[in-house]
Design goal:
The chain is an alpha+beta fold. The protein is built from eleven helices and 19 strands. Helix 1 runs antiparallel to helix 2 and helix 3 packs antiparallel against helix 10.
Length: 421
Amino acid sequence: MNFLTRELLRHQQLYYVQARPEIRDEEYDRLLDELLRLEQRFPQYASPNSPSRRVGSDLDNAFPEREHALPVLSLDKLYREEEAAQWLQKTAAACAHPVGFTVEEKIDGASIVLYYEGGELRHALTRGNGVTGNDVSDNVRTIRQVPLHIAETDALAVRGEIYITREDFGRFNAGLEEKYANPRNLAAGTLRNLKSALAARVPLNIFVYEGFFTAGHKHRDWGGPEGPPGGNAGGDHLEVLARLRQLGFRVNPRLGFFSDDEGRRSRALRLFPEIVASPAAELENYLRRRAQERAEVAYDIDGLVIKVDDLDARQELGFTAHHPRWAMAYKFDSPQARTELLEVLVQVGRKGHAAQPGLHRHAGAGSRRPGQHLQARRRHSRRRGGAGEGRAGSFCIQAPRVLPLLRIGIDQGGSAPFLPQ
C-alpha cells in the first residue's frame, strides 16, 4: 500500500504539474483501483494522505494560488457500454422524478475555471487540488475564444477544457527543440509558461461545459457536498449551456441527450438543434458509435461524460468527497497495434538535453518516428525488436510492453546506445 501510494503521488506530479506523464490513464486507474481494493480490505493501514482521498493536484508554486468559489471535483469512471447503461438506469431510479441525461465529449486537455465579476474576466484558475488552483489569468487571456467581457453583471463561474487540435499540435511541435508527447501536455505546459507573450504563440482552443450563475438566475450547476451557496433553484444543464453560448462562450455542439420523455427530447432539440436526442435504450449504441468515430474528431478525446440534466436532481443525488454522483466518465479503450522497433536514435539538443526517439514500423504502415520519447526505458535494449503499441495521445507511439518472441535480426554480440538506467 505504501508503494502504491508513493507511485500514484509520483504519477500525479508528472501528469498534473510537469505535464510529462510516464503511463497511460488506464494504467494509472488500475494502480488506483488496486490501492482502493487494499484500503477497503485493510483500512487500518490506509494513509491519511492516500491519493484515493483527494483529486489529483496540478498546483505549481511558480504561480499565485487562489481558492475556488466552489469545489472542483473529479469524475468516477467506467469502461464498458453496458456499465454505462446500468449506471444510467440506477441513477434515474434514484431521482424523485423523471430526468434526462446529457452526454458530452471528454476532451483530453487542461481543465480551467473562469471567474467573471461585473461582466469582466477576473481570474482563470487551474483545477489545482479541487479547492485551490493556480492563477494563470494572463496566459488564458491570450486565448481569443475566451470572452474578456460578457453581458452579465452578476458573478459567474465557468468550467472548461483548453486543448489543441492534432493538426495544430503537429505543426507547432515540429518547431520545438524539446518535443511534447501529445496535445494535452502542450496545452497544460503552455498554461504554466511564465511569459504570456510565449503562451500567445500556441494555438490554444477552449470549450466550456459547466456554469454557475449567482443571484438573479435559477441555474445552479455546481456545488460541493453541501451544495452551492444561495437558494437558486430549478433549471437544467442544457439551459445553462444555451445561456453560456448566448454570452459568447464556445460550447461543444457534439452533444447527446437521452430520455424516455418525448417532451424533454423535443425541448433539448429546441435549445440545441444539432444535438442527438434519443430514448435511454439507445445510449449503448451511441457510446459505441462515438468510440468508433473518435479518430474523426480534430482533437483528442479519451471518453464521454454522462450527466444528469436536471439541476434539482443533481442536488438530490449529491456528492462524495471525490466526485458527484450525478455524473460519470465513460472512458474509451486505448487503441493498440503491433509495431516493430527498427532503431533507437540518440539526439542532443542545443541546450545539451538528450532525447532517444525510436524509429518504428507498425502494422499497415511504413517507418515512422514518433513525436514523443520512447517510454520503454528498461524494457528493450537492442535494435530491431517487436513491441506492443499503446496510446499516450492520439497517434503517438508508446511501448507499454515488449513481445520478445518477435525479436528478429538482433546482433547478440553487439551493443547499442540506449536509454540510461
